[in-house]
Amino acid sequence: MAQNTTKKHEFQAEVKQVLDIVIHSLYTDREVFIRELVSNASDALEKLRYIQLTEKDIYDENLPLEINIRTDSEESSITIEDHGIGMSEEELVENLGTIARSGSKAFLKAVAESGGVSENLIGQFGVGFYSVFMVADTVEVYTHSREKEGKGLLWKSDGGGEYEIEPAEGVRRGTKIVVRLKEDAKEFSDPGRVNEVLTHYSGFVLFPIMLNGEQVNKIRPIWMRSKGEVSDEEYNEFYKFQADAFDDPLYRLHFSSEAPLEINALVFVPAENPERWGFGKSDPGVSLYCKKILIDTKPEGLLPDWLRFLKGVVDSADIPLNISRETMQDSALAKKIGQVITGRFIKMLEDESKKDPAKYGEFYKRFGIYIKEGVVSDMKNSGQLARLLRYESSSTEKGGLTTLEDYVSRMKEGQSEIYYLYSPTRELLESGPHMEAFRARGLEVLYLYEPVDEFVMT
Question: Which fold has domain 392-457?
């Protein structure tokens, strides 16, 4: 009698909560699950392509780097398969059963604060895989890691409290996800409907997407094109794809340069700042490519830390293809690339602040903390960044902002210093004894509300 080698596991508590919210939400755009699974497949292929630069001993080494999607209307199923890095048993448990690699805790907090599940939350916090349970009766994940000594595995669940993992024969390298669709989700077994979703969400994937044997995407990286060739809609859709977002960006910067370094860059300022929601410090959000090959999705040391809110892509032909992530952090070349991008971005903000002060004011409310951080920590650019600072003052209405330059232009004859007071609120400042002394002398005072402001001014 064959031994039963199926292992049953319970989802971690936070994952159970996420699943319960996703499955029972009134979220209408259920098609997002295709986007999330294709995005995960693309990530797995990117990782394998990078590994292939330095490793030759890879299981199933001749498989094409592409995403295959198959629909079966008779079986009411959709299958999404990639030949990327695949997963070991430990990685299956870690990636699909625990919060170790997902943003489940942050997702739950965001749901609580926003009062429900919005389309922007699904992908933003790394819980995209679980969106499949909006449409699935059951999900089967077949996978084999890139390691030659690895084994084929099957992970399956109905989205309840448990999942199972068992050995599987004949599994190729990568990951194959078979979605058995609910009765009210059979539309996603129709190739026409799936093609519509892929066209909308996944046009920027850098690998062939095959739908029932036919390629549905055109592979031409948007950041390698000139600005005149790209529409606002294309920019916005690429941002949503790259940043796992569903809202349009606040600003974008797209440029190419050939000297002193060959750089193609496309970076965006998101519409919102997650750090304001208390989700901890963000990872770097600008991916590094060399000649359209992904080097690192979160390159440490490429951009100064105060620019961690940016999303997008930097592609440089000057970066060695075989550079390691560890070497990247100390790379003088990477720092030079970062300096070019930082300078261009600061110049863009200066221009935007003059062109549309109201819009810049909105940016500053959400991201001004990073500008202040840059003034304190980025000595090379602190002078330019200081011109981007905005503060309320005794001469502005509540909510009105002034620049340091404008403050200086209003200084009284003989005044050689900028005066400021710190307190959490305007009301406390204006009712305090120190303010009376400044009023008596007719001096304008800047109002500082955040602890970092005192470091900025010293």
Answer: Rossmann fold (3.40.50)
